[in-house]
UniProtKB/TrEMBL annotation:
UniProt keywords, alphabetically: Signal
Domain called Pectinesterase inhibitor: residue spans: 23-181
GO MF annotations in UniProt: pectinesterase inhibitor activity
Protein name (database record): Pectinesterase inhibitor domain-containing protein
Stored SUPFAM superfamilies: Plant invertase/pectin methylesterase inhibitor (SSF101148)
Residue spans crossing the bilayer: none
UniProt family annotation: Belongs to the PMEI family.
Domain of life where this protein originates: Eukaryota
Length: 190
């Protein structure tokens, strides 16, 4: 029977990594508890715990990344659906309007991610940057709501309305959570 001198070191490393992982996921859970949709927030971000660690900036940026991916995917699906034969003219028009609104939302989220990535040396520069990001993410949320509103009314009833509104609602909830996390990040610098 021989002992590996590294085995204890390996156990310590595994234990340390487990503790770090727990710390990271607890940071995400705690941060998400202050959002409007905490369960969605945690479920969408916990898989990125290793990347986020306990950084409010990385948490906000990752929330925007997740939102961007969801918005792009939904926009592509809606563009495909808008070309489906058999849609009523009003449904088709609402779908195309929604694709345009989502395109604007994607641009604003992408712009926010790029802005957050920039280096800020002074408090004034940080405040200007965070103000821009808050404005763009709020505008993205408005665009998503406008898209969903296009499917209101009885004449828009049916599977298309249900499918579209469900996907748009998820993006809007992700965007709302991202904005709350951005606001929390901003509050750390005030």
């Amino acid at each position: 029977f021989t002992t590996n001198p590294n085995s204890q070191h390996n156990l310590i490393t595994i234990h340390t990594l487990k503790n770090l992982s727990t710390t990271n996921t607890e940071f995400i859970r705690t941060s998400c508890s202050a959002t409007t949709y905490p369960k969605l927030c945690y479920n969408s971000l916990a898989v990125h715990a290793t990347k986020i660690q306990t950084s409010a900036k990385l948490l906000a940026t990752t929330a925007l990344d997740v939102t961007l991916a969801s918005a792009k995917s939904t926009s592509a699906a809606m563009l495909k659906l808008s070309r489906t034969h058999g849609l009523a003219p009003r449904q088709s028009a609402a779908m195309l309007d929604c694709v345009e609104e989502l395109g604007d939302s994607v641009d604003q989220i992408r712009q926010s991610i790029d802005e957050l990535a920039g280096a800020r040396t002074s408090p004034a520069e940080f405040q200007m940057m965070i103000s821009d990001v808050q404005t763009w993410v709020s505008a993205a949320l408005t665009d998503e709501t406008t898209c969903s509103d296009g499917f209101a009314g009885k004449e828009m009833a049916g599977e298309v309305k249900t499918a579209v509104r469900g996907r748009i609602e998820k993006i809007a909830h992700l965007t709302s959570n991202a904005l709350a996390l951005i606001n929390a990040y901003a509050a750390l610098h005030n």
